[in-house]
Fold:
Amino acid sequence: MKTITLYDVARVAGVSYQTVSRVINQAAHVSPRTRDKVQAAMQELNYVPNRGAQQLAGKATRALGLLTTDLALHAPSQIASAVKRRAGEVGFSVLISMVESHDWQACLTALQELQAQRVEGLLVSVPLEREVAEALAAAAPMPVLFLDVGNDAQVNSLVFDAEQGARLGVEHLLTLGHRHIALLAGPQTSVSARARLSGWQRALQQAGIEPGAVAFGDWSAASGYEKAHALLNEKPYPDAVLVANDQMALGVLRACAEKGIRVPGQLSVIGYDDTTDSAWFTPPLTTIRQQFKEAGRRSVDWLIAQPAADSTSRQMRQSVELIVRGSTAAKQPEALQDDDLAQCLQELAARVARRSTDL
Ligand code: IPT
Structure:
C-alpha cells in the first residue's frame, strides 16, 4: 500500500505542503476555509500524520508517558484509564511502559523506553522506595510526577492520604462496636501498604485496642482468600477485618462464604480502593474510596502545566473517603448452636402435641 504523504494532501486540497503542515500543527494564519479544505482532503485520503517525522523536525509530540506497575491489578489499571481519558481530553496521547519489578534497573529501562519516544512529561504509578524515586526523577529530562511514594521522597508527588484512609476504616469499625479486629495488609514491598498498616495500628492503639492477628497478601484476590483462611482458622473469629485493598477483600468474602461465616453479622469486612466493581461484590463492599478518576485528571493537568526547568519539588495530597455498603454492621449474637436448635425443636414438638390433645 502506498503511504500517503503531506504532498498528496496538498495536491488534493490545492494548497502548498507548508499550508497542510500549518493545519496539522494548528498554527496561526490559516483561514477557516483553507483549514476545511485540507481536513477534507486528509479525510478523503485517510491521511495520518507521521509522528516520527514530526519528532525529527523537533516538533512537540504531545505525548505523555505512564510508567506503571502490573496493570492486571484493578487500581493501577483504573489509574491508567483515568490518565488516558484526561490526556485525550486535552489533546495528549499516553504511552505506557509497565514494569514487573520495582527496582532501579527496571525503572530506568522503562524510563529510557519512554524517553526514546520523546514523551513530554512522565507519570509514575509504581510503588517506589525514596532512593529509587529520587534517582529516577534526577535521571529524567522531562517533568515527572510520582503517584505511589512516601512522604519523605523529595520528588513531585500526588499521593492519596493513607493515614486518613486507615483512620476512617478503624473509626467505622469502632463505631459499630467491634473490638477484635484482624488486619490483612498488602505486600511489605509497597510503601502504600506499609502506610495503611501503620495507620491502622496507630489508630487502634490510640483507641486503646490491641490489634488482632496480622497477615500479608500480595494485593490479589487469591492471596486474600488464602490469608483469610489463615486468619479465620480458629474460633472465636475476630469481629472484623481491615483489608488493604478491595481485590483481597473479594477473596476474604469468598473464604467466609465457604466457611459459613456471615458477613456482616458475624464478621465485618472493610476494603480499600473502591474500584468500580466493589459495589457488585456479595455483599456490596464497605471500603475506603481513592478517587482514581480525580487523581488521573489532576496529575495530567499538573504535568502539562509544568515548565520543564522547574526544579522545586511539590508534594500534593489527595483525600480519601469512607463508603459504607453492606459488608459491615454491628456484631449480632452468635447463631443458634446445634444443641440449642435441638432443644427448640423439642419444645415446639411438645407444644404441638399439647395443642392437638386440647382440640
Ligand atoms: C494501590 C492500590 O490501593 C492497591 O489495591 C494495589 O493495586 C496497589 O496500588 C498496586 O501497587 S493504589 C496506589 C496509587 C497507592
About this structure: The chain is about 45% helix and 15% strand.
